[in-house]
Amino acid sequence: MNKFVKSLGMVSTIALLAACNNGDGGAEEAGEQDETSTVEDNGGNGGNVNLAVWGSSPAETNALEETISSFEEETGIEVELEIIQDNFQDAMTARFAANNAPDVFYLEAFAAPMFIESGVLENISGEIDDVDDFFDPLIDVFRGGEDELYAVPKDYSTLALYVNEDLLEAAGYSTEDIPRDWDDLMAFADELQGDLEDNQAAMIFDQTLARHYSAFINNGLDPAGEEGSADFTSSPEAIEYFESIIEGKEAGYLQNPQIDMGIDSAGAAFGANRAAMMIEGNWVISALNQEYSDLNYAVLESPTINGEEQSMTFSVGYTVSRDAENREEAIAFINYMTNDGLQQWSELSGTLPPRESVADAMDLFDNPVLEPHVLAAEYGTVWSSGESLPVVASAFDNYFQAAVNGTMTVEEAMQAAEEEANAELDRR
Amino acid sequence: MRKKRSNNIQGLTFMTPATLTASLFIVVPIAYAFFMMFFNINLLSGTRTFIGFDNFRKIIGDPRFWAALRNTSTYVAVVVPIQTSIALILAALLNSKVKFNRAFLTVMFIPTLTSSSAMTLIFMWLFNNNGLVVNQLEQLTGMRIHFLTNPDLALSVIMIMNIFSTVPHFMVVFLSGLQDIPTNLYEAAAIDGATKIRQFFHVTIPQLMPILFYVITMGVVGTFQIFDQAFILSGGTGGPQNSTLTFTLYIYQLAFTSNDMGRATAMSFILGVIIFTFTAIINKVMKADEMNG
Q1: Which terminus of chain A has fewer Cβ atoms in its 10 Å neighbourhood, N or C?
Q2: Residue B204, SS3 per DSSP
Q3: Is pLDDT above 50 for B141?
């Protein structure tokens, strides 16, 4: 009996503690609500909007917070910012499944077709100011089947060729010697490798489809273009391109930083003078300038393939979820962030502005490091295709590795990847 | 009678919080999964159509399912016996009067405390084509072995890593079991003329049976659910050529690459059945019920 009383005492203590906790939480919530309402009173036109973004660098988070404050000052609309550290796309899917989607959120071009086809995004055609000012490929990727608009780009990255001038000079070459065409570039890399030290690579390569999709496009093939089927094999020229990568890897003038060199990232290998060239996005610039500040490098446009300019573009936009509670505020927010507030955001975060006028205002076309990236916004292939792209890309990455290992020829690997992707698409 | 009732109330009161949490976060999701596996579901738009056993038919017809089955079974068959025997041997060594056995124990326990993602990155450094292991092996044998990109070897790197990180935990479990064995059993065996080795097989092992059952069961369950190492090593693709595709990675791909939650839950159900069957077999073979008695 004594035990029983004791345990009852404990249970009630726990219950009391829990109640206290609850009380605190309630008070806090009430406090928050008060705050919002006072802001509403002050701002006059008021309202609020919730925004979900992924967590990137502290610099970007600060930039976002500052641009948001400018927006709040100008409009009196309160923004509730939520930074999601998990796998963002999976988290958003779960939020939609739970009927708990934010009003506005980041949307990667890669995932856009899936969200658009599922019909969970708000059609915002005609509600965005000055749409023609955006670089066409960056915004077109967020359009649906009938040209209706579902998202607006906030920034983008493109690939360009980075050259380590110190290594090049030591080997007896200069930046002017670097050919623009891919095949000539490979021949140059082969030649350059002979003049480098043993632990240095002429060029770094990445073997995922995300970096090479434009090579297919330039050869007239969109592997995931047709809904429900994959095609890697119908362009012999594309296969030749991938064979040139395998050739380079076998001869040693193309190396993968993680697998062949044991270095975390391409930028680190390049910065540590272990590689003379790399094709990378503008995201490496801040690391190169901060961590490898004594490095001398130049940035050139991505090589031409099949005689045409190409690059890969990674575009991210703001989108509004369908039937969002604060639809008007959400659209006002997007309009501000991608127009009046765009320059502030781009300058603070170090990302590239998707509007040509802002790129002009920021003198990006005269910036030797950024110009090649900005030029690519016009001709780059945006990393996005149909709804099948995730499956198609996963199959490619799975099998192209076999070609890189030499266990399959490029043609066999492409065939196998195509079959696997098609089988999976049939099962959906 | 009264006492019994008050005991019951007491027990039920104590169980309520745990029961509520467990049913909310474990029982309800499992029940929902049972429901979902018969549907074709688009999680984003929330639409679903009943398709009966079609999800299972699709899984059986998918070569990647068989690749995952092959990889995971190989993985379990290799890792469980090795990790169990190494853990047992280390525990027996630590249990004998080795000097500094506390210090050894502390050092050896570190791998279990390291997060598996950090461990995977460390192993990727060791085993990459320019890493320590590859270079040392080249000096010794003159052969360059590409562990991470060779489909026949990629899985073995994950195996070594898993053994390395789970052995210490099981070793501690064995050690506590060993310390519970009464010394008079060994004395009796010694008087009967049993050597140290015979003592190990005829006294230690039978006495450790309940612990052994626990270690093997947890080992089987843990290895069937291998995910993070395979995910990081292959960048989520399960490549090269599906050689690191495990059951859980396959489930992840179904859910988030193919966006097919119905098929993912059906596959989870299959995995559940497989683990359940294996545990039941181990239970039968080792007669765990009787010894715990």
Answers
A1: N
A2: helix
A3: yes
- In order of start, what are the domains of chain B with their CATH numbers? 2-36 (no CATH), 55-292 (1.10.3720.10)
- If pLDDT is split at 50, 70 and 90, which confidence band does B154 have? confident
Q: What is the mean pLDDT of residues A220-233?
A: 90
CB spacing of B258 vs A390 below 8 angstroms: yes
Q: Does A19 touch chain B (CB under 8 A)?
A: no
- Mean pLDDT within A353-369: 94
Query: What average pLDDT does the segment A241-263 reach?
Result: 91
Q: Which residue ranges make up each domain of chain A? A: 47-157+314-382, 158-311+385-427
What proportion of chain A, given as a percentage, has pLDDT over 90? Answer: 71
* Nearest beta carbon to residue A427 from set B14, B62, B241: B62
Find chain B residues with C-beta within 8 A of A87's C-beta.
Answer: 256
**Quick one: pLDDT at residue B2?**
65
Q: A120 and B260 in contact by Cβ < 8 A?
A: no
Using CB atoms, pick whichever of A94, A405, A424 lies closest to residue B149: A405
pLDDT band at A407 (very low <50, low <70, confident <90, very high): confident
Q: What pLDDT does residue A359 have? A: 95
As a whole number of angstroms, the distance between CA B67 and CA A120 comes to 35
Q: What angle do CA A298, A162, A211 make, to 5 degrees?
A: 155
DSSP assignment string, A157-201: EEEEEEEEHHHHHHTT--GGG--SBHHHHHHHHHHHHTTS-TT-E
pLDDT of residue A161: 96
Residues of B in contact with A119 (CB under 8 A): 45
The answer for B193, left when phi > 0, alpha when psi is -120 to 50, beta otherwise, is left
Report the alpha-carbon distance of residue A83 to residue A87 in Å, rounded: 11
Which residues of chain B approach chain A closer than 8 Å at the C-beta? Answer: 3, 6-7, 9-10, 13-14, 42-46, 58, 61-64, 124-125, 128-131, 146, 148-151, 235-242, 253, 256-260, 263
- CATH node for A47-157+314-382: 3.40.190.10
CB contact under 8 A, A262 and B129: yes
Q: Do A405 and B130 touch (CB under 8 A)?
A: no
Q: Are A405 and B235 a contacting pair at CB < 8 A?
A: no
A-chain CB neighbours of B138 within 8 Å are none
The band of B235, judged by pLDDT with boundaries at 50, 70 and 90, is confident
**Per-residue pLDDT averaged across B15-23, rounded?**
92
Mean pLDDT of B204-219: 90
Q: Do B241 and A3 touch (CB under 8 A)?
A: no
Amino acid at A220: G
- Contact (CB<8Å) A261/B130: yes
Same fold, A47-157+314-382 and A158-311+385-427: yes
- Please state, in angstroms and as integers, the Cα–Cα distance from residue A346 to each residue in A75, A107, A336, A342, A379, following that order: 20, 17, 13, 6, 21
- CATH number, domain A158-311+385-427, options 2.30.42.10, 3.40.640.10, 3.90.1720.10, 3.40.190.10: 3.40.190.10
Q: Which two tokens stand for residue A190?
A: 């082969």
Report chain B's mean pLDDT, rounded to a whole number: 87
Is residue B179's pLDDT more than 70?
A: yes
Q: How far is CA A203 from the centre of its chain?
A: 23
Its sign, for the CA torsion B147, B148, B151, B157, is: positive
At A27 the pLDDT is 37
